[in-house]
Amino acid sequence: MYWLVALMGVSLLGIMALGIWLELHPADACVQTPRWLRGSVGFNLLSFVGAEIGLLLLGVQNVMAEPVSVAPHDISIGMGLALLGCGLPTAMATIGAGIAIGPVGAAALAVIAEKPEAFGRSLIFLGLAEGVAIYGLVVTILLLGKIG
After folding, report:
1. Which end of the chain has fewer CB within 10 Å, C or N?
2. What's the confidence (pLDDT) of residue 135?
3. Is 107 within a domain?
4. Closest Cα partner for 40 from 81, 74, 10?
């Protein structure tokens, strides 16, 4: 089991090292990317995804086979699933807000560059996109109130 975690750690370190190397040595537009670079990124990604899948497939059995430990709060599987379900609205709303803010922010910057007096209106649109995440957080808080 630990070898899967080590493989994921090495893969992440490789991706970070490659990112730092690319940051320090940026490629020109006319220079073609070296072949080893594509292979290295592909291998790191493949090893990371493979280790994740292996950890999920092999790790679930180890976790489910653990003896039940005495905890101050006895949480059942149903309660754990309910808590995970409470976190889903915030997660999905945050992902949706991030997807919405990207294009809206880019368009707002383009409009402000051409017409600075449109700053207030563009800020309202960005706030509307961010409001989606706040709605998800409110739903999560309401659901947590129902579980308790």
Report:
1. C
2. 92
3. yes
4. 10
Residue pointed to by tokens 């490629």: 27
What is the residue range of 54's domain?
A: 2-65
CB 44 within 8 A of CB 18: yes
Asked if residue 72 is part of any domain, the answer here is no
Q: Which two tokens stand for residue 88?
A: 């889903």
Amino acid letter, 34: P
Q: Could you read off the pLDDT of 57-108 as tens digits, one per residue?
A: 776 666 665 566 665 667 788 888 888 899 999 999 999 999 999 999 999 9
Whether 70 maps to a domain, the answer reads no
Question: Number of structural domains, the chain?
Answer: 2
Q: What is the pLDDT of residue 69?
A: 63
The answer to whether residues 60 and 81 belong to one domain is no
